[in-house]
Input
Amino acid sequence: MKKILAIALLCLLPFTAWAGEAKELAEDPAVEKRMVALAENLRCLVCQNESLASSHAELAEDLRREVREQIRAHKTDQEITEYLVVRYGDFVLYQPPMKSYTVLLWFGPFALLLIGAGVLFYQLRQRRQTVPETELSADAQKRAAALLNDEEKQ
Amino acid sequence: MMRFIRPILRFIIPVIFLVLSAFLYKGLELNPREVPSPFIDKPAPMFSIAQLHESAKNFSPADMKGKVWLFNLWASWCVSCREEHPVLMALAQQNIVPIVGMDYKDKREDAEAWLSKGGNPYILNVFDVEGRTGIDYGVTGVPETFVIDKQGVIRYKQIGPVTPQALQEKILPLVAKLEQQP
Output
C-alpha cells in the first residue's frame, strides 16, 4: 500500500517541477530571456552536467535569482559572469577561458590530431617504399598463361 | 630520414598512450564534487548578518580577527550534517579551535530544535535564510567547512562532512600551523 502511495506521489512530481518553472517564467520576460541566455553557458554546481538554466537544484534556483537581480540592476553579462567566477571558479563556465593551465585543454586535441596525421603520412609513405613490385619468374608466367587460356576454352 | 623517424614514433606513440591512460586512471579516483575553491588563500568574504540564537545581534568575520577559526555551513535539513555533527561536538569539547556555524536556508525553530537535541558545538551561529551569504562563499551543498587564519584568510575548504580522518590529517595539523603564524 505504501509503495503504491509512493509511486502515486512520484507521479505528481513532474507537475510540481513544471509549476516551479512556469512561475519563474511569469516574471519579466526580457529579464528572463537574458537570464536564460546567460545561464545556458553556465554550469550548475549541484548537478554538474546540467546548465544553470535547466537545473532544478535549489542552488541553481538561488543563482538564477541572483542573475535576475543583477540583470535588473543593469549589470553587463560580463560583470554577472565575473560575479559567479569569483565565487565558483572557472568551473562554472562551460567554455573554459584561455589560461596557461588550459593550453593543453584547448590545443591538446589539435596536437594529437597533427601527430596522428603525421604518423599516418609516414606510414603510408613507408609502405609505398617497402612493398616493391615483384616480378614473376618465367616458369610462373607460363603457368599463369596456361591457366588463363584454360579458363577461356571452357 | 625514415630510419630515424620510425624508432622515434615507435617510442612516442606508446608513451602518449601511457600518459593518457595514467591521467584517465587518476581521474577515476577523483571526486567531481570537490571543485577547487577559488577562495583558498583569499580573504574570507565579508558579511554582517543576524545570529541564529540572538537575532538582534549581527556577526561579521571581522569579529574573529586574530583567531584561527572554523566556519561551518550546515542546515537542519541536511543529511550529511547529521554524520558530521558528532565529529564537531567532539572537536568543540577539546577546545582547540572555535567553530562558527552558518545555518544555511533553514527555519529558525528547526535549527534551534536540532541544536538543542544533538548539542551545540558552535561558539555562535549566523542565520543565512536566503542563502545569499552561502553563495558569497561559493557554497555548492552543505556541509562545507572553511579554515580561516588570524588575518581572516581562507586556508582550506572541506567539501562535505568533516570526517575524523579529514580532521586528523588535514584540518588539525593546519590549525596548529596557523596558530604559530602571526
